[in-house]
């Protein structure tokens, strides 16, 4: 990296860079600049260019076009700008976005400290654009503006995946980020600027103004801890206000206090004092418009909404969704509403009608206005109205709309431990989904494309690793009610990257599934929240657009509306894979608990259940979900943890099975994934297991289901074994405790081995007809057997649990006469046949042969003598007796 220095060293460093012209491969060019995007000057790797800006607001443009070798060799471009004047530096992924001034806040920096650096990822196809803008002089007293001389250059770098960072963390001499609440406060400010203000034109203007003025304040703060402490104290005073605006926007009911008013005024004055004259005027205009001195006693949400700095919020939580019983009409229901104290004119079908027949929305009247704001209806009123609707004879059910939340040879491949765990970072070698073996197998297979829907915050399809894979033509934005499902949060893009980021293109990372198209369905907003209606509609949209697998990394409380949508997906043979939840308790969230869902928990690099992963009855399986690197909209590969990250691995694997065999049904896909999973159950070494308690302080008891671990389900995903099972057409028939062979299907010639733990029970080979039968000793009930099969590049292990068998069926006995010296008949193979006299005393015992036939020798019997014949298995379970009367 370009080493950062404090401001006092800037002049020396600039001189050093300029002198580097004599060094090979690192030349400083003559002064040059492009005054617009269309005139951008080409910037080469290792080159340093000098430039001069003479007037405030003057700008220079540069273009970077990395070569294929650069992309293959480096993950990032390190762009460095140095100047004694305050310059704003912005980097853009494309020309179109440069023209729109559309980039991420982490790619907007300044030279307030004398130098700045941007690590910009090779995540788009390029070319990339850099804008250098002169913000003006910090000193207003001079008659003439000082020219802004600067140098700019870039070089390739390899940076590992990381947690999202703040530009402030990389600023020399700025220590606010290190304060106790510094990170949280800066996060709130970042979210307000990037998301709340970014949703309105006036909000965007204010953000751009703040971006221009903050560098001047920062230059005053560098290495001045006293002033930094003053700023921090003011921000600390505003902490609760900022947090409320971050979470609630225009709905913020926070009332500005006297101390907060003073803090706002002081920060505003400090900002204005540090800024050049032209920015001071702009700040004063904004201050007058907002009423910077008259905020005390007002709702900050109301002020922001009135000034159009944040969008007007609609009260979605006032909605109730109700469904009419079959055969009932809305008209007849409306006629009866008045009798139940319900306003019939509050019913609308516009938004939900496409979901299911007879399903409608009721808008609960809002509360009275306060300080110019319409209030939400109280929870009690909403619940009461829902109960009234439910009590109507022609209504099947009614429920309030609820909120659901997101559950959180490529350049970065070496960091993708879920694909190949070589014990990096204290992990467990081999604790992965067997990506490389799976890809080797895929290379010998015919694969079709399968559509997987990501029902989430949207997906940024502009990234090179997702471009062409994301089916924007099939997407939907249920939040904005349009087709633009671009991600304004990051969660959905991270999920999509895990599923399907392009492999072997030298960009960023590799997704598990290279044979899929992603349908982006945006049902969660920029803050990761979404409601019942949006999610239900999102599921239906995904199904109707042809998705065969739906990934839902979100959760909340039970909803009949969403359950209807889940059932709709099941009826259309669509597998819905859902995150179990991140509370780390023996209770999963909804829709993970839906009978139509395949619930997925998270494992870590040590191959045990992640501590945050929710679990319990109904958990299907686990997949890597801790410290998972994947794409973010800003182009970086970042680590995120959660069952949200585990779910897409299973969804991706499910898609691969369907690409190999499109005729598979959801339950077949689920069973293959579960039965090929690797056991990662954990047993306490001290002989005791943790005891968990429910909300009533009652102990929650592990049901101890054979073959299923309570915390990890059927085990951790093994994508190679699952795909091999499909390649080998592998299946195992039911094994009961009396059986002395294991039978099933497999590709002709496949080697078959049956194990109980590490004990080999028997071997065999699949016949030309694609069946196998392996002799074993009968096993006790609830024992877990693993049937390993392999042929060519494919190798799998199917898990089956020995079931308790039933008593054999009654044998079929041939006619017995006075001349007969034998009793003949048929029953199951390997059974014990007992011939008894009328007193039920055994007079002969024989075994059936491999075809089930038996012959029991007896003495000739008199006519009308009564005999009884039974069949018993190895467990001594005896069939009902067949009564035989000896004939003449």
Automatic annotation (TrEMBL):
<dbReference type="Pfam" id="PF00082">
    <property type="entry name" value="Peptidase_S8"/>
</dbReference>
<dbReference type="Pfam" id="PF17936">
    <property type="entry name" value="Big_6"/>
</dbReference>
<dbReference type="InterPro" id="IPR036852">
    <property type="entry name" value="Peptidase_S8/S53_dom_sf"/>
</dbReference>
<keyword id="KW-0645">Protease</keyword>
<dbReference type="InterPro" id="IPR034084">
    <property type="entry name" value="Thermitase-like_dom"/>
</dbReference>
<keyword id="KW-0732">Signal</keyword>
<keyword id="KW-0720">Serine protease</keyword>
<feature type="domain" description="Peptidase S8/S53">
    <location>
        <begin position="448"/>
        <end position="682"/>
    </location>
</feature>
<dbReference type="InterPro" id="IPR041498">
    <property type="entry name" value="Big_6"/>
</dbReference>
<keyword id="KW-0106">Calcium</keyword>
<feature type="domain" description="Bacterial Ig">
    <location>
        <begin position="731"/>
        <end position="801"/>
    </location>
</feature>
<protein>
    <submittedName>
        <fullName>S8 family serine peptidase</fullName>
    </submittedName>
</protein>
<dbReference type="GO" id="GO:0006508">
    <property type="term" value="P:proteolysis"/>
</dbReference>
<dbReference type="InterPro" id="IPR000209">
    <property type="entry name" value="Peptidase_S8/S53_dom"/>
</dbReference>
<dbReference type="GO" id="GO:0004252">
    <property type="term" value="F:serine-type endopeptidase activity"/>
</dbReference>
<comment type="similarity">
    <text>Belongs to the peptidase S8 family.</text>
</comment>
<feature type="active site" description="Charge relay system">
    <location>
        <position position="491"/>
    </location>
</feature>
<feature type="active site" description="Charge relay system">
    <location>
        <position position="644"/>
    </location>
</feature>
<dbReference type="InterPro" id="IPR023828">
    <property type="entry name" value="Peptidase_S8_Ser-AS"/>
</dbReference>
<dbReference type="GO" id="GO:0005576">
    <property type="term" value="C:extracellular region"/>
</dbReference>
<dbReference type="InterPro" id="IPR050131">
    <property type="entry name" value="Peptidase_S8_subtilisin-like"/>
</dbReference>
<dbReference type="InterPro" id="IPR022398">
    <property type="entry name" value="Peptidase_S8_His-AS"/>
</dbReference>
<feature type="active site" description="Charge relay system">
    <location>
        <position position="456"/>
    </location>
</feature>
<dbReference type="InterPro" id="IPR013783">
    <property type="entry name" value="Ig-like_fold"/>
</dbReference>
<keyword id="KW-0964">Secreted</keyword>
<feature type="domain" description="Bacterial Ig">
    <location>
        <begin position="807"/>
        <end position="887"/>
    </location>
</feature>
<keyword id="KW-0378">Hydrolase</keyword>
<feature type="signal peptide">
    <location>
        <begin position="1"/>
        <end position="21"/>
    </location>
</feature>
<dbReference type="InterPro" id="IPR015500">
    <property type="entry name" value="Peptidase_S8_subtilisin-rel"/>
</dbReference>
């Amino acid at each position: 990296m370009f080493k950062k220095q404090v401001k006092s060293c800037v002049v020396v460093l600039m001189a050093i860079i300029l002198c580097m012209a004599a060094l090979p491969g690192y030349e400083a060019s003559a002064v040059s600049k492009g005054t617009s995007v269309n005139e951008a000057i080409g910037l080469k790797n290792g080159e340093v260019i000098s430039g001069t800006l003479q007037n405030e607001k003057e700008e220079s443009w540069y273009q970077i076009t990395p070569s294929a070798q650069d992309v293959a060799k480096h993950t990032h471009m390190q762009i460095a700008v140095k100047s004694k004047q305050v310059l704003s530096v912005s980097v853009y992924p494309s020309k179109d976005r440069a023209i729109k001034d559309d980039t991420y806040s982490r790619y907007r920096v300044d030279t307030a400290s004398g130098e700045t650096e941007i690590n910009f990822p090779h995540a788009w196809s390029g070319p990339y654009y850099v804008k250098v803008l002169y913000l003006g002089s910090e000193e207003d007293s001079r008659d003439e503006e000082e020219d802004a001389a600067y140098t700019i250059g870039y070089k390739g770098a390899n940076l590992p995946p990381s947690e999202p960072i703040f530009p402030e963390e990389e600023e020399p001499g700025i220590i606010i980020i290190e304060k106790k609440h510094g990170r949280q406060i800066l996060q709130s400010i970042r979210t307000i600027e990037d998301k709340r203000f970014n949703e309105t034109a006036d909000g965007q203007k204010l953000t751009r103004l703040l971006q221009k003025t903050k560098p001047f304040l920062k230059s005053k703060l560098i290495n001045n801890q006293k002033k930094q402490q003053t700023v921090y104290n003011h921000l600390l005073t505003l902490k609760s206000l900022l947090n409320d605006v971050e979470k609630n926007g225009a709905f913020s009911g926070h009332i500005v206090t006297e101390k907060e008013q003073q803090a706002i005024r002081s920060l505003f004055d400090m900002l204005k004092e540090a800024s050049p004259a032209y920015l001071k005027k702009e700040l004063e205009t904004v201050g007058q418009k907002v009423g910077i001195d008259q905020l005390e006693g007002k709702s900050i949400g109301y002020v922001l909404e009135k000034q159009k700095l944040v969008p007007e919020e609609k009260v979605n939580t006032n909605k109730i969704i109700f469904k009419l019983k079959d055969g009932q009409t809305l008209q007849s229901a409306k006629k009866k509403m008045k009798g139940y104290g319900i306003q019939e004119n509050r019913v609308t079908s516009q938004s939900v009608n496409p979901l299911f027949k007879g399903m409608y929305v009721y808008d609960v009247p809002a509360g009275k206005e306060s300080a110019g704001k319409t209030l939400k209806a109280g929870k009690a009123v909403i619940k009461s109205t829902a109960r009234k609707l439910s009590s109507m004879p022609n209504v099947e059910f009614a429920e309030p709309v609820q909120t659901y939340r997101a559950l959180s040879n490529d350049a970065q491949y070496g960091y993708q431990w879920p694909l190949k765990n070589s014990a990096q970072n204290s992990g467990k070698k081999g604790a992965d989904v067997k990506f490389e073996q799976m890809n080797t197998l895929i290379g010998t297979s015919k694969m079709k494309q399968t559509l997987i829907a990501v029902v989430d915050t949207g997906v940024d399809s502009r990234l090179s690793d997702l471009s062409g894979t994301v089916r924007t033509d099939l997407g939907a934005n249920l939040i904005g009610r349009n087709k633009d499902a671009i991600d304004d949060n990051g969660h959905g893009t991270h999920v999509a990257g895990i599923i399907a980021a392009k492999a072997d293109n030298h960009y960023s990372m590799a997704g598990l599934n290279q044979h899929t198209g992603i349908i982006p369905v945006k049902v969660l907003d920029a803050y990761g929240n979404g409601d019942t209606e949006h999610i239900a509609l999102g599921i239906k949209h995904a199904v109707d657009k042809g998705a065969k697998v739906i990934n839902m990394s979100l959760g909340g409380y039970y909803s009949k509306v969403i359950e209807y949508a889940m059932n709709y997906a099941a009826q259309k043979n669509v597998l819905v894979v859902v995150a179990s939840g991140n509370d780390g308790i023996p209770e999963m969230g909804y829709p993970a608990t839906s009978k139509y869902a395949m619930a997925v928990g998270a494992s870590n690099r040590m191959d045990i259940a992640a501590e945050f992963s929710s679990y319990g009855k109904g958990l299907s399986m686990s997949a890597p979900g801790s410290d998972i690197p994947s794409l973010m909209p800003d182009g970086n590969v970042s680590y995120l943890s959660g069952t949200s990250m585990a779910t897409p691995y299973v969804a991706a694997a499910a898609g691969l099975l369907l690409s190999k065999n499109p005729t598979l049904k959801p339950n077949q896909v689920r069973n293959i994934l579960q039965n090929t999973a690797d056991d990662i159950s954990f047993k306490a070494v001290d002989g005791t297991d943790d005891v968990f308690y429910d909300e009533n302080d009652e102990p929650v008891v592990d049901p101890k289901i054979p073959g299923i671990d309570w915390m990890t389900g059927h085990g951790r995903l093994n994508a190679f074994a699952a795909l091999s099972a499909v390649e080998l057409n592998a299946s195992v028939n039911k094994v009961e405790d009396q059986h002395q062979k294991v039978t099933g299907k497999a590709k002709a010639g496949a080697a078959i081995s049956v194990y109980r733990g590490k004990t080999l029970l028997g071997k065999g080979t699949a016949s030309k007809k694609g069946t196998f039968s392996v002799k074993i000793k009968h096993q006790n009930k609830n024992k877990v057997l693993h049937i390993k099969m392999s042929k060519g590049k494919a190798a799998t292990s199917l898990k089956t649990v020995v079931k308790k068998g039933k008593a054999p069926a009654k044998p079929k006995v041939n006619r017995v006469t006075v001349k007969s010296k034998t009793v003949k008949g048929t029953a199951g193979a390997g059974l014990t046949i007992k011939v008894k006299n009328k007193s039920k005393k055994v007079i002969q015992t024989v075994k059936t042969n491999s075809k089930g036939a038996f012959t029991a020798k007896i003495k000739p019997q008199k006519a009308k003598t009564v005999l009884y014949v039974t069949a018993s298995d190895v467990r001594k379970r005896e069939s009902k007796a067949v009564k035989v009367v000896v004939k003449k």
